[in-house]
Design brief:
Elements (H helix, E strand, L loop, with lengths): L25 H11 L8 E7 L6 E2 L2 H9 L9 E7 L5 H9 L3 H7 L8 E5 L2 E9 L10 E8 L3 E6 L4 H11 L7 H35 L7 H18 L3 H9 L7 H56 L1 H10 L14 H27 L1
Parallel strand pairs: 3-7
Antiparallel strand pairs: 1-2, 1-3, 4-5, 5-6, 6-7
Main location: membrane
Subcellular location: Cell membrane
Protein name: Transporter
């Protein structure tokens, strides 16, 4: 992951310039450098690239992408363009509606309410993908999951998010290093692969923490981690629910793909789904392990409560003779025995002590038999 200030999406939101961009006019370079510190350009574009067959991606601005977007479908030529937008920018959605030629279903998906499960489905002749990923500043909080919306065609990929996401940042880092991307489907497959890798990293870190909690639990120091176990379980459940691609949607897509999608590209998506299935099985196994630790923790807490209740009961039983004697002697009525005797107090103390000793002896014998 790129560090702060080195071109990561969380730091600047703008891709570092590829050497191929030096051919651009100097005013355009100065304009783009001036915008780099603000995260997006004037239209909310975080980063844009044009990919030609076998070549690394060349950075594009939103104004540079307009000629490509305005070409008729049959005249787009080779290669494709990827545009990544920040929806928190006020001008992003108006620009997309005016120039990107996206279907209304894509904009409806942006405003869908409720839980957005990850899905990839066919939308006419193109693809609509709703992907969930952890935010760039993810801190193992179940709420640190945000959504990425992707529209994908044979010559154009448009992605949009409201918060910086780790998988997108890794993909941008790969593109900035000069790695070529063969097609739009290959770009989506690489994004899914980065997402699966990030999920695997989260699973590994959570599993390491669960190992530590398990060791402390076996050493009888675990009940204090009950809250942390509950948080980790909520995290794994939320990640499984949101990041797992809907199998029915992916199956429908692979059984009836758009005409422009080749057999190799369908195989890429199938492999991406299988990679996710492997990681999600690991996450599910971790959930079961956390559940067992929670049960073990609850058992330890119940044992401690039982010990505390037993101790309280024993104190109450052993104090019964003195409480009974104090209640009887404190009624202040006539006929109280030993009231006029000179050693009456000590006689009562001796009787109470004897009764308490007999009672304690009976309790000890019952405990020994129970053991």
């Amino acid at each position: 992951m790129a560090p702060e200030g080195s071109g990561s999406e969380a730091a600047t939101g703008q891709a570092p310039f590829h050497p191929a961009a030096r051919a651009l006019p100097r005013p355009e370079l100065l304009y783009r450098q001036a915008l780099a510190g603000y995260g997006t350009d004037a239209n909310g574009l975080v980063c844009g690239y044009r990919f030609m067959p076998g070549q690394p991606g060349v950075p594009l601005g939103s104004e540079e992408a307009l000629p490509w977007l305005q070409r008729p479908a049959g005249e787009a030529g080779e290669g494709f363009v990827w545009l990544h937008f920040n929806l928190s920018h006020a001008k992003a959605l108006p620009w997309l509606r005016a120039h990107a030629g996206l279907p209304e279903s894509w904009f409806e998906a942006l405003h869908a309410l409720g839980s957005r499960s990850t899905r990839i489905e066919r939308d006419g002749h193109n693809l609509l993908a709703v992907l969930n990923d952890v935010t760039f500043d993810f801190s193992f909080d179940p709420n640190d999951v945000a959504t990425l919306w992707v529209h994908l065609g044979p010559r154009l990929v448009v992605s949009a998010r409201r918060q910086p996401l780790r998988a997108v940042d890794r993909l941008r880092a790969d593109v900035n290093r000069g790695e070529p991307v063969a097609s739009t489907v290959a770009l989506l497959e690489q994004l899914l692969g980065d997402q699966a890798d990030e999920l695997q990293r989260i699973h590994r870190a959570a599993a390491d923490r669960v190992d530590e909690i398990e060791d402390e639990l076996l050493a009888h120091r675990g009940p204090r981690h009950a809250g942390e176990l509950a948080r980790l379980r909520r995290l794994t459940v939320r990640l499984q629910r949101l990041l797992a691609p809907e199998p029915t949607a992916l199956l429908r897509l692979l059984s009836a793909p758009p005409r422009w999608m080749s057999a190799e590209e369908r195989e890429l998506l199938r492999h991406a789904g299988e990679d996710f299935a492997v990681v999600l099985r690991d996450v599910l196994a971790l959930q079961e392990r956390i559940k067992l630790l929670q049960d073990e923790t609850a058992t330890h807490v119940a044992e401690q409560n039982n010990r505390s209740l037993f101790t309280l009961t024993m104190v109450t039983v052993l104090a019964l003779p003195i409480n009974l004697a104090a209640g009887l002697m404190g009624m202040n009525v006539g006929g109280i025995p030993l009231a006029g005797h000179g050693h009456g107090f000590w006689i009562m103390v001796a009787l109470i002590t004897a009764f308490t000793a007999v009672l304690a002896l009976m309790v000890v014998r019952r405990l020994r038999r129970a053991r």
